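As a warm-up, study this chain.
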Amino acid sequence: MAANDKQVVSITFKTEQQKREALDQIAEALDRDRSYILNEAINHYLDHYHWQVKQIEKGIAAAEAGNFSTDAEIQAAIAKWTQ
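Now compare it with the structure written out below.
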């Protein structure tokens, strides 16, 4: 399979009628089909989720390496946001 070839599969799930209607309105406004809109939404979700996991892993690695904020740094951050 070439790098640009993607295996396309069908998936079925249930959602509220109102959400389906909203998806269809967006699809119509963008002159796209519902599948395109759903794939875009899934792509955004996956990008966000993968970013979040990477940030958590970076935090765990920093903690395991002993890279913690000092009490003074924490107090300075709190003071910055509470003024």
